[in-house]
Structures are given as C-alpha cells and as structure tokens.
Amino acid sequence: MAFVLIFRKIFFKNFWPKLCRRKSVVILSTVLIGAFLVFGLHLSLSTQNKPKLRPKLLDNSAAAAAQPAVAESRPLVPGLRVVHLDLKGAPPRVSYLARLFPLMASFGANALLLEYEDMFPFSGPLSAIRAENAFSVSDIRTVLRLAEESGLEVIPLMQTFGHLEFALKLKQFSDLREDPSLPAALCPQNNDSWTFVSQIIDQMAILHPNSRFLHIGCDEVFQIASCQKCRLKDRDHLFLSHVRRVAHHVVERHSRIPLVWDDMLRQMSSESLLDSGLSQLGVEPVVWSYVKDVYRFISPNQWTTFGSVFRRFWGASAFKGAFGETLTVPNAKWHLDNNVAWLHVLSDQTPVFSQIRGLVLTGWQRYDHLASLCELLPAAIPSLALSLITVSFGYFDSNQVFSRFDRVLHCPPNGRPLSDTELDADPNLFRRASACDFPGSGVFRLMETHSQTVKRVSDFLFDVTIHKAWLTDYNIRHNMTNPWRVDEGLQDYSSVYYSLQSLVRTAKAVLQEVYDEWTVAEWIEQNIYPSILRMETLMNASIALKKATHWPRRPLPIPEDLLRRLKDN
C-alpha cells in the first residue's frame, strides 16, 4: 500500500499535468494508471492477509490425512530421540536386539536409555542382586557395540533412591530400607546406603565407559522421612541432599552428566532447588508425563520454576507401559497423542531453557519390580514406530508417517494414511500391522489371538456358570443339578479348551525367539494359564456333580458361614 501512495504522489504531481495537455494519450494513460493502481493494491492486500501456516499435528479426517503438512519454518525435532528399554525381569535376547536396533534407527531413534535393575551383571558385594538370567559382561559389551553400529548413543539407568525393590527385597540388603516393611526406598541417612549406591554407580560406569550421561532414577520415592534416623528431617532436604551426593559422585568420580526423573522436584520451590546445588553439578531433569494434556500435570508455573534452576532438560513420553498394568498390547493412538503433545511442549519451552536435550520415549516392562509383566516389547513395536516416526518429523502428518511406517515394518503395499477416526477404530493397530513382517511381528500377532481366545473363554464360562442355571456356584456347593443339562452346557468345552492349548504352543514358539525360557513361562503363566485352570476347575466340578444319582428334598441346608452372617445382620 505504501508503494501505491508514493507512486500516486509522484505521478500526479510531475507527469499528469503534461499528459493531460495531449488529448491523444489521456484515455490510454487513464487506463494504464488504473490498472497499475489495482495491481499494486492487490499485491499489498495479499501480502498483509497471507495466512501463516503452522506444522500440522493430528489430522481429523481422511481428506486431511492425505495432504502433506506445510510449515513456514522447520518444526522442532528433538535432538536426541531416545528409546527406553526397561529390562527388569524380562531381558530380550541379544540376538533379538541385534535385529531391533537398526529398526529403531530407521524409525528415527538416535539413543537408547537402558534400565537394567537386576539384569545387570553385578559383582562383588552386589553379586546377590544379579538375577539368574541377567546379562553377562560379554552380553553388555555386545549390546553396546550393536547400538554403536546402529548410531544409537547408550544412556545407562540405575535407580539410586526409590524403586530399589530389586535389591531391598533381599534379606542381606533389607537393613537399608527406609520403611522396614517396604522394599522400595532406602534410608539416605544410613551410611551403608551410600556404600551400596556408590558401588552401583561405579559398576555401571565401568561397563559403560563411553556414555556421556548416567541416569540415576530417583522417581516416586514414596517412603521418605519415616524411619528413626529421618523422621525429624525435612523431606525435601533429605531428598535433595541424597540426589546431590549421588550426582556429585557421578560427576567427580566418573565425569558423566547426571540425569534424574523430575517428579519428586515438582512441588519444591525454586529457592530450594537452587540452594540444593543440583544445577551447579550439571544435573538435568527428565520431565515425564504420559497423557495427552501434559500441562495438566506439569503446569506453566512449574516450567518457569525448572527454567530458573536448570539450563537443560529432557522430556519423557511413552510408547507402552503407561495405560494399564496388565495390558498385553498398547493403545498406539493414545501414545501418539502423548508424543504429539510433547512436541508442542518442547516448542513452547524452548525460550525457557538454554537447551532441550531430547525426548525419551519410555517403554515400561513392569510398573515396579514386584509387579507382573505389562506389554512386551515386540508387541509395542507398531506403537513405537508410529510415535517415533512422528517425533522424528517434529509433527504428525498421516501421509508421511504411514509411508515410512509401512516401508520400515515391511507391511503389504498399497497401504493408505489413517485418519484420527480410523486410528480410534484400530487403536492397537491390529488391522494395520498384523500383516507386517518386522522383528517380533509374531509376538504382535500373538496378542490379537490371545485377546480373541481369552474373550472366547470368558464368554463360555459366563454362559455356563452364570447365565445358565445348572453349573452355578450354588449347584456346585449343594451338589445338585440336572446331569443332562450339564452335558448340554459343556458341548463347546472341548473346542474352547483346545483353543487354549493351541495358544500355549503358539506363544511358546514365538516368544522364545525373543525371550529366555523364564520370561516365556512367566508370560504364559500370567496370561493363559489362569484360563486353563478355570476351564479345568469347571470340568472337574461337572464330573463330581454328575456322580450323584439321588438328591435331597427342599429346602436345602443353609451353609454355616452364610447362616452366621445372616444372624449377625
């Protein structure tokens, strides 16, 4: 618009009077001037009104999914894109990791966070902690070499305060507990606790000589300031003092950068955090949240506090192990939402910190050491691929993401992008990824078969023992039923029971390609064996019921325990 005004001023002042004296050019001049003014006005307005496009995040329709994202500037792609491998109690075979690491790199990963717990080959005074199926020293050296060959930087993680169940569960280390009845957290005021922690750090650092970072855990320290030595101390001071001591050892003894989970720091003031000296030691918090609304749990004020204390931070999302303690396959859509939310947060917080190190995609194997297994690693590969490819782009574009997804997971050709609605309809990606051929794909397919089989068993047992009236708990307690009706209800028993037996064989075959015999047996015991026992209990009850040939007159006797309860009420 400024250009148009300047042109009009110069033209009408200097040239227009002369042109008007020549009648032959008046009409032509008028037309040209009008055209030029219209063009200038259009150019000015189009520049002012041009929309500023942002990176697209989650598409809301199939049409939108088919369109590539457009951005004026490069999206924020985390510098370190870290895959967390939680090894506690379920270590994959090294041969499987050799196939998995290149795949993770093709998703966009460039680092690994290895959490060992009792899978580390502890020696000397700590040798009792080492599980019988732990990695050997040779195994770890092979893992580190394989990671390096795939361009994956390794960050070791070992808990040093809370979540020490893997050691404190043992009698020889139980004296270190903060609460004698609970094996989770150690007492920071116990001198033997420091000896224990320093030995853990030393052995970990020695076997990871090239690691820049060392993660010291320290999340969810629920038992603190409760023992005789600590109960009169300030909880925050106890926590910060212990973390500072561990971090100082990591820095001074091993020249590594200490990382720490952030959750215990969230309720502390900036003054307390600054006085602790953690920032001077170069401690970097790993801020974790596994939901779609990250700011719901980590408020803007909390980010301001962290930014005033720490120069650098990491984000931590999840690709499995966050939405159910006993799940067998993750909800990939929920994890995608979480990772996309983190891309927003990292972008928002860029001005607050000197550097954003990266994003850790956590993949918990158990909710704690004493819990049963949640989703196995191979069952979560499609979820990891969806989220990590998105993170490596810096935003979600269905066309780009699923194009790489299909290519690296060796899926059938002619796949198309999925909209939000389609992802909601297939959150586990069974329809999308069951025909793909990737390391561990047999385990992924097993989870769908398992889900269908267990549902069939549950439906059968409900029908026979609750919906129908001849094999209920009442019938079994009183040994009274119609034998013909029992046989009628059990007509499908053999078919349902055989499906479980077949599932055990399939599970053993595919799981042993990834895990050792103990992990294979544990998963089958937790996820198939209970259904087998329920079916066999039903059959044994039916056999006992059918032995009766005479039955008593009504009313039937009231069970003594029930009679007592009726009298009490």
Account of the 3D structure:
The protein is an alpha/beta fold. It folds into 3 domains: 2-49; 80-404, Glycosidases (TIM Barrel); 443-568. Helices cover 51% and strands 8% of the residues. The protein contains 23 helices and 8 strands. The protein has helices spanning 2-20, 23-49, 62-65, 94-107, 137-149, 165-168, 191-207, 235-254, 270-276, 294-297, 300-309, 332-349, 381-393, 398-408, 420-425, 430-433, 441-467, 473-478, 483-489, 493-511, 517-527, 529-546, 560-568; strands spanning 80-86, 111-115, 153-157, 213-215, 257-261, 284-288, 312-320, 355-363. It has an 8-stranded parallel β-sheet with strand order 3-2-1-8-7-6-5-4. β7 (312-320), α12 and β8 (355-363) form a beta-alpha-beta unit. α7 (191-207) runs parallel beside α8 (235-254), α17 packs parallel to α22 (529-546) and α20 runs antiparallel to α22. It is globular. It starts with a helix and ends with a helix.
Tell me which CATH architecture of the largest domain applies here.
Alpha-Beta Barrel
Could you tell me the CATH topology label of the largest domain: TIM Barrel
Distance between the termini: 89 Å
Number of domains: 3
Helix count equals: 23
Low-confidence stretches: 1-13, 15-73
What is the residue-mean pLDDT, rounded to a whole number?
89
| Helical amount | 40-55%
The gyration radius over C-alpha positions equals 32 Å
Q: Which CATH first-tier class of the largest domain would you pick?
A: Alpha Beta
Large-scale geometry: globular
Largest sheet: 8 strands, parallel
Structural class: alpha/beta
Name of the CATH homologous superfamily of the largest domain: Glycosidases
**Largest sheet, order of strands side by side?**
3-2-1-8-7-6-5-4
Count of DSSP strands: 8
Range of strand content: 5-15%
